[in-house]
Write a structure and sequence with these properties.
The strands form two sheets. The chain has a four-stranded mixed beta sheet, sandwiched between helices. The chain has a two-stranded parallel sheet with strand order 5-6. By secondary structure, it is an alpha/beta fold. Helix 1 packs across helix 4 and helix 8 packs across helix 9. It contains ten helices and six strands, in the order H-E-H-H-H-E-H-E-H-E-H-H-E-H-E-H. The protein has a domain of 147 residues: Thiolase/Chalcone synthase (Peroxisomal Thiolase, Chain A, domain 1, 3-Layer(aba) Sandwich). Its EC number is 2.3.1.179, 2.3.1.41. InterPro entries: Beta-ketoacyl_synthase, Ketoacyl_synth_AS, Ketoacyl_synth_C, Ketoacyl_synth_N, PKS_Beta-ketoAc_synthase_dom, Thiolase-like. Belongs to the thiolase-like superfamily. Beta-ketoacyl-ACP synthases family.
């Protein structure tokens, strides 16, 4: 089992325990799993590739492919917890975690499940992944661990890699109230877009992100002035942070002056595809 799947299982168990969600033969069909991962089993890939090169194809594990594919986190969590409802995975680069939660939200909203175990997971701290991001000059070259990753600050020069999983239990209000669940928050809207611009860079004025934020507010039936806090992507890259600020200002207008904005990557590093929990 690849490390990204292990992270997902541990986090999912913690989430289900915290939610006091009882998955049994009477509820299993109405509880689904939707956990995203962008890279999937990168460590598994590296190990299998070395075996192939050093010892030949017959030494590659028959479990190589099942351990590698990004939706294996969802599959293994479903097996581990016995959840038999809607099951899938989203792969949308750095938006994977948020998109997974959004898709799970829509599944519950349209009545296809009473509850969903959802989020993102990633284990990218491997030789190949680090080399790839280093080659693209996305990583910080600052050796000071206190200041290496500093989103939106002057002098930022890239991100620090992190890894882990973040999993939520989302549930219909009726189901949560019926079982007396401890409700932390309510999801009221979700928006997703593409800017059709470049394979890695956002559109110069952040128009894709702006349309996604507006779509989420439209879905929720709220206005920019109603939003008090925005958890930004904030990768600590010179271009990315600037474009995100433009997107926020274009979306919120005058309300942006009073909007609280921060990025958790200064604390956790960039967990890549499981990092977008806006």
């Amino acid at each position: 089992m690849d490390r990204f799947t292990q992270y997902a299982i541990v986090a999912a168990r913690e989430a289900v325990k915290d939610a006091q969600l009882d998955i049994n033969e009477n509820t299993a069909d109405r509880i689904g799993v939707w956990i995203g991962s962008g890279i999937g089993g990168m460590e598994t890939f590296e190990i299998a590739h070395k075996q192939l090169m050093d010892k030949g194809p017959r030494r590659v594990s028959p479990f190589f492919v099942p351990m590698l594919i990004p939706d294996m986190a969802t599959g293994q969590v479903s097996i581990d917890l016995g959840a038999k409802g809607p099951n899938g995975a989203t792969v949308t680069a750095c938006a994977t975690g948020t998109n997974s939660i959004g898709e799970a939200f829509k599944i519950v909203q349209r009545g296809d499940a009473d509850a969903m175990i959802t989020g993102g997971t990633e284990a990218p701290i491997t030789h190949m992944a680090i080399a790839g991001f280093s080659a693209s000059r996305a990583l910080s070259t600052n050796d000071d661990i206190e200041t290496a990753c500093r989103p939106f600050q002057e002098g930022r020069d890239g991100f620090v890699m992190g890894e882990g999983a973040g999993i939520l239990v989302i549930e219909s209000l009726e189901s949560a109230q019926a079982r007396g669940a401890n409700i932390y928050a309510e999801i009221v809207g979700y928006g997703t877009t593409g800017d059709a611009y470049h394979i890695t860079a956002p559109a110069p004025e952040g128009e894709g992100g702006s349309r996604a934020m507006q779509a989420a507010m439209d879905d929720a039936g709220i206005e920019p002035k109603d939003v008090q806090y925005l958890n930004a992507h904030g990768t600590s890259t010179p271009v990315g942070d600037l474009n995100e600020v433009k997107a926020i200002k274009n979306t919120f207008g005058e309300a942006a002056k009073h909007l609280k904005v921060s990025s958790t990557k200064s604390m956790t590093g960039h967990l890549l595809w499981c990092n977008r929990w806006n």
